[in-house]
Amino acid sequence: MTTREHRCVSVVAQRDGSRTITAYRQDDPDAAEMSVHLTAGESQALVDALMPAHHSPSLLSANDLGLVAERIELAATARWNGRLLGDTQMRTRTGASIVAVMRRAEAIPSPTPDFRLAGGDILIVIGTREGVETAAAILGQE
């Protein structure tokens, strides 16, 4: 991302919830000026500090419930490319649910078992940490 002040900043999200925030030099956008690694808890604290109004009494916090939500990209070489979502038996095998699919600029909420997956799809998966990691491994099969 480039800020209004023309500063380049990146955030890399890891599966364990940690984040690495990097700011780049203005005279060389390929050279890091500063990099900070945050644990999952520190990342959440930063979100709370930046957006304290994001809490609403009607919204549930997945972290408080022991759940995680992740984006998992389906590779073109994946076993599931071109196959039906129901064929994965994702919920039965992992306890995790695919709650939405991002395909190009389109969001498909609550895909049904007869939804046909395609390489490049970004699957939004919610479940326990273990369930989501297992789902990622299953979706990554070639």
UniProtKB/TrEMBL annotation:
<dbReference type="InterPro" id="IPR058776">
    <property type="entry name" value="KhtT-like_N"/>
</dbReference>
<dbReference type="InterPro" id="IPR026278">
    <property type="entry name" value="KhtT"/>
</dbReference>
<dbReference type="InterPro" id="IPR006037">
    <property type="entry name" value="RCK_C"/>
</dbReference>
<dbReference type="InterPro" id="IPR036721">
    <property type="entry name" value="RCK_C_sf"/>
</dbReference>
<dbReference type="Pfam" id="PF02080">
    <property type="entry name" value="TrkA_C"/>
</dbReference>
<protein>
    <submittedName>
        <fullName>TrkA C-terminal domain-containing protein</fullName>
    </submittedName>
</protein>
<feature type="domain" description="RCK C-terminal">
    <location>
        <begin position="57"/>
        <end position="141"/>
    </location>
</feature>
<dbReference type="InterPro" id="IPR050144">
    <property type="entry name" value="AAE_transporter"/>
</dbReference>
<dbReference type="Pfam" id="PF25991">
    <property type="entry name" value="KhtT_N"/>
</dbReference>
